[in-house]
Every structure is written in structure tokens, then in C-alpha cells.
Amino acid sequence: METIGYLLWQVWKERNNFIFRETTPEVCRVVDLARSQQISYRKWGFGEDPAKTEAKTKNPPTWRALKTDCLKLNVDGSLGEESTEGAVACVIRDSSGTLLDRFTKTVWTESSFQVETLGVLEALKFLKEKAINEAVVETDCQLVVEHLNSEHQVESTARGTLKESRTLLQQMPQVELAHCPRSANSVAD
Predict the structure, then answer these.
(1) CATH superfamily entry for domain 71-188
(2) DSSP annotation string for 85-121
(3) Cross-referenced InterPro entries, in alphabetical order (predicted)?
(4) Is residue 109 classed exposed, middle or buried when 0-12, 13-18 and 19+ CB atoms within 10 A define those classes?
(5) What is the model's pLDDT at position 188?
């Protein structure tokens, strides 16, 4: 039953990409992404039923609107177990929470840290491409935020991605990078 749920979700996303982005649906890709998401959830979802986890937390952190008129981008990345194929997703909302845009992208990488950094990089590229100067980019990967907000070099496969992200952040001084709890970033999952 769980597999069917993941498959239906991917079919829905593929349908939306066909309608809104005019992409050609690929059945094999839909099945592969569904399997990848299922494996990723089993690995990173801690094996608990989300309904039970939510019931345990009385007041889980949720998405919070901004107080100013800037945009908020929630970014997330996922990497399949024993795979180099991952995905990044970004949801763009205004300060009232209205969905303005979203995108997903398949990426090839070696680590979950690198896929998270690629997610932030893609969000920054989106902002630059759309000439959006004021925004908050949120990710649930605190390590990425720490590395991008510091100047020291990192010995990592993500070094190039971090450098490119830092450069974009310097070019857009009104763009803030922030960490948010995983439960507040579920919109980008």
C-alpha cells in the first residue's frame, strides 16, 4: 500500500510537470523516483508512522510567514539509498503564504550533504534568474547554513557548490539563508 502511495504521488507530479512545464512524461522515471522516495523515507523518516510522530509533538514547528514583503523559498534535497541520483525541490511563497512558484530538479551527487547544498544553489540561481533581490531561503540542513554563513573552506565534495552559492549570496545582499526545523520545511519534501 505504501508503494502505491509513493507511485501515485509521482504520477501526480509528472502530470503537473506535463501540464505546467510541458515536459514529456516518462514512466520509468516516475517508477524510479517513487522507489527512491520510498527508500529515502525509510532511511531518513526514522521508520515511524508520520501520524504517530505528529501526535507525539504537541506543537510542532510549522512554516511561518515573513513580516516583510519579501519572498520565502523552502528548499530540500533527497538522495536515494546506495544511489547517486537525488532530487532537490523548492517552493516559493510570498509573505502571506501564497504559493507563487515551485520547481524540482534531478541531481547526481555522492552525498546527502551535497544534494542539500545543490538545493540551496538551485534556489539562489532561481532568485538571480528572476531578478528577485529580497528573499529568505530556508533549508532544514543546518550544516549547509553553517558552512555558507562562514568563510572557512570545507574539505568536501560539495566545495565547488558551496563556493558558487557563497558568490551568489554576496551578489544578492538582501537574500538571507536560514535554517528551519524539518517539520517547518515539509512543504519542500
Answers:
(1) Ribonuclease H-like superfamily/Ribonuclease H (3.30.420.10)
(2) EEEEEEEEE-TT--EEEEEEEEEE-S-HHHHHHHHHH
(3) RNase_H-like_dom_plant, RNase_H-like_EbsB-rel, RNaseH-like_sf, RNaseH_domain, RNaseH_sf
(4) buried
(5) 46
